[in-house]
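A quick word before the example. In earlier lectures we treated sequence and structure as two separate objects. From today on, think of them as two lines of the same record. Here is Corrinoid protein written that way.
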Amino acid sequence: MSSTDYQGLLQKAVRAGDIEETVDIIQKVLQEGINPVAIVDEGLIPAIRTMGDLFEQGEVFLPHLMRAAEALKKGMALVSPLIEETTADQGVANTVIMGTVEGDIHDIGKSIVALLLSASGFNVVDLGASVPVNKFIGAVEDRTGDSIIVGMSALLTTTMSQQKLVIQKLTEKGLREKVKVMVGGACVSREWAAEIGADGYGLNAQEAVRLALEFA
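And the structure line, produced from the sequence above:
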């Protein structure tokens, strides 16, 4: 099975919520030596992102999205231990405070990034979805002795301004210099990250991990 073949087939299986097919494809490509991080980044994430977009557009409904999410979880259960094995020796000890910003309940992509960060040796504090500005600030204040990265996800254009508000509040509280801020999400761009004063932008889960490792 070629790289291109597996990507398309895996994405199709996840979108269809076909757990058996999702597991079968992943098992086969793992045997062929495909990098487990690539499986997540090139197969699982694009599939669930597409489903999220279709859901927002009203082209699929909640049961379809939930079935796709279940297939995603089964796939992640296969690759997560392998990712942990390959990254366990990096010895990173930084704390990453992760959350989807207030007003945005999408948290599958953010959760995948959190998983990969944890597997890479980071101490991940996952605040969940629709996280208020003050909750981000409180999480930073609670970890005064740590080296901290704040990661914020936004999938809606109506909520991305919350990323800017968190950075502004960090500055007001005198906390901005002690943290690195990275942002991501379907509606977020490198230009937006620069505009709001973030330290970096992750286009996908793999890039977010790479960025965090640079900050460490």
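Notice the following. Residues 158 and 174 are 27 Å apart (CA to CA). We will return to this example when we discuss secondary structure assignment.
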